[in-house]
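Q: what sequence does this backbone want?
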């Protein structure tokens, strides 16, 4: 293969489908490189001592892609031997153990690709407009239903024609039907 046929490339993708480590790492393979370094950020089942059900990501897509392109340019300035860079980030709901972000970098030697991967993830998390929301068992309740529970308790305190238990049972059933539709 002629060197001109393997020009440095950046592969940037924001998508709602499940990410593939094989797909992302294969994008950066080059016969001129002896190293491919990969970072995989996955959803864990806890955050700050709370149980997490899943993560949910939103992005200002055009700006996020632009910022990731800047990161790739910075990487190439800091480590000129870097060949290919792939940054794939998932949007929407990401279940426990699935990948939220995969970054792969190829270079002739391992030191540059390892340093570049760490730089990419650190700058991405600090500057790219992608927002993460951790959903726990409590945070998955719609805010409106929590407000309704407060109203039921208040009405019970001041007296109501319907018993507090009956109203709570109705609310519990509506929470269950919303969870089943999600």
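A:
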């Amino acid at each position: 293969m002629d060197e001109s046929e393997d020009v440095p490339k950046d592969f940037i993708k924001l998508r709602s489908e499940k990410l593939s480590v094989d797909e992302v790492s294969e994008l950066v393979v080059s016969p001129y490189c002896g190293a491919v370094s990969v970072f995989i950020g996955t959803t864990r089942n806890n955050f700050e001592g709370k149980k997490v059900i899943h993560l949910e990501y939103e992005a200002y897509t055009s700006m996020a892609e632009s910022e990731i392109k800047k990161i790739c340019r910075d990487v190439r300035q800091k480590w000129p031997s870097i060949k290919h860079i792939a940054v794939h980030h998932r949007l929407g709901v990401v279940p426990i153990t699935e990948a939220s972000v995969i970054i792969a970098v190829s270079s002739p030697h391992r030191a540059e690709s390892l340093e570049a991967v760490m730089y990419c993830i650190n700058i991405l998390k600090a500057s790219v407009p992608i927002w993460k929301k951790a959903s726990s068992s409590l945070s998955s309740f719609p805010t409106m239903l929590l407000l309704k529970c407060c109203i039921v308790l208040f009405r019970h305190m001041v007296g109501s024609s319907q018993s507090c238990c009956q109203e709570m049972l109705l609310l519990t059933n509506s929470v269950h039907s919303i969870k089943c539709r999600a």
